[in-house]
Here is the input.
Amino acid sequence: MTPPRLYKTEAIVLRQRKLGEADRILTLHTPAYGKLDAKAKGVRKTTSRMSGHLQPLNRCMVQLARGRTMEVIAGCDTLESFQRLRDDLDRLSRALYVAELADRFLPERVENAATYRLLLETLRRLQSDADQDIVLRYYEMRLLDLSGFRPELARCLGCDQPLQPQQNFFAPAAGGTYCSSCGAGAAGARTLSLNGLKVLRLLQRASYKETVRLSMPPALALEVERHLRSYIVYMLERDVNAAAFVERLRREQQPLEV
Amino acid sequence: MDTLAVERSGSYQGLYHVLHGAISPMDGIGPEELKIEELLARLRGDEVSEVILATNPNLEGEATAMYLTRLLRPLGVKVTRLARGLPMGGDLEYADDVTLTRAMEGRQEVQE
Here is the structure.
């Protein structure tokens, strides 16, 4: 959909970078126009009215004017500031991870109301008392699905047989699961416990309401996280920077755990 | 440049510790990239009664301040943060939610 010369849209600010002396380029996720970059002029000055409204993670109504090379933000009003995310280091670190994944997976200017809704719901869920890590795992699996990177979890990618209820393998390079025979020696394949497989399948097939009721022992939660992360890193062909901060905070909170 | 601004105001006569950046996880800037170890070393050495966090009032600055608070509180030193809120010459009408919240939180009794 080609937008008109001056138009209004709801947007969530994913990230920002400096431009010149007083400007910024913001990466926005909009429901109707997908992900787009827009210039915010003069926002680094203390007198800027817009700078507070355009902080990362803010959901706002922006007025955009089509410029020569990119849109220019003509005005904006905050719709939702996610205060509870900003006041809590652990929630904030996860929210930034969520924003970075959205930025990395979304192509520019492709309408995607589904990923916008997923992003918005996930930010709200991170504000709630739901298990933070389950919220992330659900988000990761849904985003992979919406981006066309759905991992195979039902059959063996080697022999095409349905997976047996035992330990199998998970190989990002192949796009999903291998059975216990085909997986041994397959490139990048790591063991996947039966419970790990069940959780991954639940994340892929169930609704958020069902998934969030899940209660995983730490070792299982870690296994699921590692498999999903390695899959994401393989598909994006790069590390997800914000993951390191989430992990560091977790490590520093529990110095006695291995 | 931040240091210069504070020094120029004349409102502070203590020591400075420059972090050389702010935590920005998406850009790969974590605590290791800042001069935090050096700050901890200074606190272990000198007689420090208060650490005033003067990071920018934006997302990265808040993240840095929260992280440092978590790190420094257990050391028993007083940790404070510069007041945030409305800039002089600003307009309440155009202020965003977060700015107004911070300004409200930091409200002070009016001295006659």
Summary: Chain A has a mean pLDDT of 94. The interface with chain B takes residues 15, 46-47, 49, 51-53, 55-58, 78, 81, 83, 86, 89, 92-93, 96-97, 99-100, 103, 241-242, 244-246, 248, 252 of chain A (CB under 8 Å). The first strand of chain A starts at residue 6 and ends at 19.
